Amino acid sequence: MNSCLLVTLLPHSHDMSRQTRRHALPQGDCLAFQSRDLKNVRQNIAILIHILERGALGPRLIVCRMACRCEPDRWDAISSFFRRKADNPFLWQALIFSCPRSFKFLLACSSSNHISSPFVFAQSLTTRRMGTTDDKVLDAGVCAEGVDEKNGNAGDRLDMYRMGKAQEMRRNFRFLSILGFSMILMASWEFSLSVATIGLVNGGTAGLIWMFFVCWMGFFVVNTSMAEMASMAPTSGGQYHWVSEFAPHRHQKLLSYLIGWMCVLGWQTSCASSAFIAGTQIQGLLVLNRPDYVPQPWHGTLLAVAVAAFSVLFNTLLARKLPLVEALVLIIHVFGFFGILVALWVLSPRADAVAVFTEFSDGGGWGSLGGSTLVGILAGVLPLLGADAAVHMSEELRDAGRTLPRSMIMTTIFNGAFGWIMVITLCFCIGDLEAVVTSPTGFPFMAVFLNATGSARSATAMSVFIVAMTVFSNLTMVATASRQLFAFARDRAVPLSPWFASVPAGWDVPINAILTTFLISSLLALINIGSAVALNSITSLATTSILSSYIVSIGCMIWRRATGSPLLRSKFSLGRWGLAINIASEAFLIVIFILAFMPPNPNPTAAQMNWNVVIYGGIAIFSVIYYFFRGTHQYEGPVVYVRTLPPETVTP
């Protein structure tokens, strides 16, 4: 026997263990085609016959039939079909068994025109024992035309088949909802107001404006490069999966493992950071309305935990409504931008345009305007980082190979434009810089709103938009971080992998990964009670971890293009400009990666020091040690599950 195809029609998902479906099936040419409702059996048979008529399974087939007690005559249609086919040398052998809960229809290609005796594959038999072949066999569910709410369209099914992954989550995201998802997660114009102090101190108004523009252009080429890779391999694993497929063969396993850890930790700390920022923004609103309120660290911790709990609620009990929520919040994101923009330009006194666009400052004391401005570039990096979030939701996106690149590029264009316009507006309307930076609210934008409106209530109403978007940004980050953890666990890269990768039937989301994300955010928020500096140092890991994943994955694409190695076909391609765009992306990323480790001034105190370099280095060393002691024995990398498809099966 050269190869086989297992088509499974299951009325109950517990007939085969989830561990078997996830790890055994993707390793060869064996797939599960599932149906929760027995009424769909006839339709599935019709699809299967249609595929057989197209000759997708080859000319020689051995058919073993297992029927349940109820309505075994449904399988007679298949028997009659084979008997009628005189132009193909089919050999029909039927094995009928009583099985109250499930039934299987097994097709196997044979190397000869006959088999000495009938055979049946046990449920626990993995595809490694079945063997593989160069003659690739496609599941009826993969080949069938049409759109399914769980499995997406034919392109989605083909992508999952090629990558050797089982479809476990529901594909209920569309273009608008995934666009809203990524735009809300980045929340560029809102976040640019929160971190503007970094650029105003190191660079001044001119430095903040032009460094933000440089970051916008830089991330445009970066995200365009990633959009191409996302179209080639739209998977929740994202960067570590791309590294596993595109890196030089001898380095695929180690590099993908390290990048996987960086992505997991980067997104987990992003969730904690976002929840903490939302909590402290709520404290800022209290200070704005009650000057006698004294913020306490434990207040911020409790508020951060509450924000994280709100995000978990939407990602579990209301998970199926998440795409609708993202689309609705996108409206708030857009209309809130124009509302605040108009209010600031109408109500605020405006600075001189020449001073705003040309005056740089060295508030950090670096002794060089250029050096100080480069240190302040982080004010442009943070609001524009995270376009890969949509990639980690790709297994829940319909027509991901085509929709994902569009959403990533449009997110970069619109969020970058909104952010740059808001930064320019802030610089024109900021007034007394020192008074704004030292505002008791802790957030300069609240002081700017108060100065513009002259009313605490009006400033609160404007600030609520920012706080609400920060909360919803955390909601999307929880979804992203949990999918990243789920994907890495699915490839057996973390301790307790089966538990983290569990997707309970009926939920269609990785519940355990979501709850773990909530737990990590809550535990990190507790650090704030002892030291806010320690918490900020840990959460700063998010920036460099995610940037390093971009650097390595795009670097792999540069290597493939420079060496003439073949690239996967995709629905979005950079074509002849690919190498130039990849190199420009890599150069930009390396510069901002180095600058992300810089302290705010050349002589920082322990509280001012950027401890990111120590934490990042420690995590990298731990990952390498864990890999050699344990990971190398469990982790094989996504590339081992990947199938090579015939050219005619690839959708352009």
Automatic annotation (TrEMBL):
GO cellular component: a single term: membrane
Membrane topology: Multi-pass membrane protein
Transmembrane segments: 172-189, 195-222, 254-278, 298-318, 325-346, 366-391, 412-438, 458-482, 513-535, 541-559, 579-598, 610-629
Chief location bin: membrane
Keywords, sorted A to Z: Membrane, Transmembrane, Transmembrane helix, Transport
UniProt xrefs under Gene3D superfamilies: Amino acid/polyamine transporter I
Compartment annotation: Membrane
Protein name: Uncharacterized protein
Organism: Beauveria bassiana (White muscardine disease fungus)
